[in-house]
């Protein structure tokens, strides 16, 4: 009990409210998890067309992350979060009505722009509401809420998908709007106009851009490789689970829900106990090693029981890698460009979401599922080597 109290104690009430918002929002995260299954099973798209739909989601997410970071530095984290959640929620009700391939690609792109603008704003809001020494634990608490919601969402999503795929979109829309209402009611802050900056200060700020920070850009590149190998566990691989492993939608939902449940159960405790024992890069490197093990297991062992063991390694990979990636990106920034650094790191996710679905679905179509697992494991191995070198330096 003392361990739990110490792990969760000392965090700002606003951080707990942010976590509650994320819990509600992510409990409705069903559409992205089942998009590849939805497009192939209900809309009867080919696996290549499903990949293009997911690629458009990733392209919209790149634009949304960049735009969200820029707007966060101008308008503040509160307003960006409110607009992202509310407009994004309404768009789910529109996209569910689209069946034509070209229009669906466009709808998914716009949906992702608004949805992903939330990510950098949320990270900056965490840094705004917490003490610097508690930032990693604060990130982990919000991630705990995300993953607890992720434990609920795919399970419900599997239930809904087995009955009517439209329910996935309605659930996502409602939970986004509810999360926006909580942000408006409890996390409202004044919208402060940005003070005028002199030409000399603008020049100095430009030199502080994350895009000129070589070490940080190497980090972003490696983070992108990691996400390219990690995110398919919940985007491309549901098709692998169904067709290559022979499990149904409800089992797919349970498999992905286990990921969220494990993160919610152990991440805060592990962060509290281990945070100051090793460097951030060492934790990230170890997380990459666990992801390689995950794919080794997926290549050889494909029963539902072994898939559970495999996803457990993937989950602990996430626990060790992602909180410290967030912390590194914020600590690398300065006060005036928190949003830009957060956006630069956040873009590793949508860039990966452009490449991974397209690459994954093309590999499946041309070479099969064995080649897919080898490709994803290879990307994880490349990230492992890169972060090992960064940790060593």
TrEMBL record:
InterPro entries per UniProt? MFS, MFS_dom, MFS_trans_sf, MFS_Transporters
- What subcellular locations does the record give? Cell membrane
Q: Give all residue intervals belonging to the Major facilitator superfamily (MFS) profile domain.
A: 14-393
Q: Where is the signal peptide?
A: none
| The keyword Transmembrane belongs to this UniProt entry's keyword annotation | yes
Q: Which residues cross the membrane?
A: 15-38, 50-69, 75-96, 141-161, 167-187, 215-240, 252-271, 283-301, 307-330, 342-365, 371-391
- Which PROSITE patterns has this protein been placed in? MFS (PS50850)
UniProt keywords, alphabetically: Cell membrane, Membrane, Transmembrane, Transmembrane helix, Transport
Q: Which domain of life is it from?
A: Bacteria
| Lipid bilayer topology | Multi-pass membrane protein
Its protein name is MFS transporter
Q: What is the source species?
A: Lacihabitans lacunae
